[in-house]
Amino acid sequence: MPDANKNQALDQIKDKFSLEVSDNYLKQALGKKWRDHKSTLKKKYFKNDLSFEQKLQNPPHGILRYQWEDACHFWNSAKGQARERIGVTSRQQQKFTHTAGSKSFARIANEQEATSGSNVGRIQLFDITHTKKDDSPITPEAAEIMEKLREKRTEYETSASSAGSAVNMADIDNQVIAEVFGPERYGRVRGTGSFVTPTKYFGSSSSQYMPSQGHSVQAQVELQVERVKQQLQEEMDAKIAAVQAKAAAREAALQGKVDDMQSQLANIMQMLNKNPPQDPPY
Predict the structure, then answer these.
(1) pLDDT attached to residue 76
(2) How many Cα atoms are found within 13 Å in the side-chain-facing hemisphere of 134?
(3) How far apart are CA 7 and CA 16, in angstroms?
(4) Packed helices 65-76 and 78-92: angle between N→C axes, nearest 10 degrees
(5) Is the Cβ–Cβ distance between 153 and 170 less than 8 Å?
(6) Contact indicator for 176, 153 with CB cutoff of 8 Å
(7) How many Å separate Cα 275 from the centre of its chain?
(8) What angle do CA 210, 215, 220 make, to 5 degrees?
(9) The pTM of the whole model exceeds 0.90
(10) Cβ neighbours, 10 Å, residue 36
(11) pLDDT at res. 195
């Protein structure tokens, strides 16, 4: 999406609401809403039994026809289908999800802290956001993870107490989660919800919870390559769309000329029928 569209949406939000969050947070939230919206449109209006041509001719309410056609052509392309397969495979590997619903993790933590009067750590927040209303784990896999987290935290607390060290529960939670789940993923912090980055959460100590430097460089290179590929593909798609638009404009102009000529010819024929030529006198 062009930056101009993002900034326009951002300005409209600021005109209507008074928010104490950064522009970057708003753009991230908008991006998620936009992806969710496209997913809903695809499930409801594209993944059905209609033919491809019928789908093109029936854009959803509120969607411009050319935008809907572009989306359908992408979803129907080899690149779009490959991206869908990757997404489905990734989703199938997820063994459990959270039970927070529409509430953010930060809001849930604040509500719990207001009720209990104590800070809510990442492990406790994981338990809260992965249990049902009857306080049972959402899945057996979630129950197993919870048990591992509790066991590891007890080990760290006991070790710190035995050594006479001050127990920092936040540091213990971070170490335990990194040990159970592995290093944090780039740009995200497990168990804290959306839009929380390692640098913001851990500060200068974020590197100890991230993969090794070698993996970091490799991941950055792979990410850069993927971005270049995507940029080249977008530029190619834009050029193809521009050529198609010019061709359509030429075709429309040519059709207009043909229609004018046919109209003129029809007028001439009509005049001839009203005033047929007279035979010359002998």
Answers:
(1) 93
(2) 3
(3) 14
(4) 70
(5) no
(6) yes
(7) 69
(8) 95
(9) no
(10) 10
(11) 75
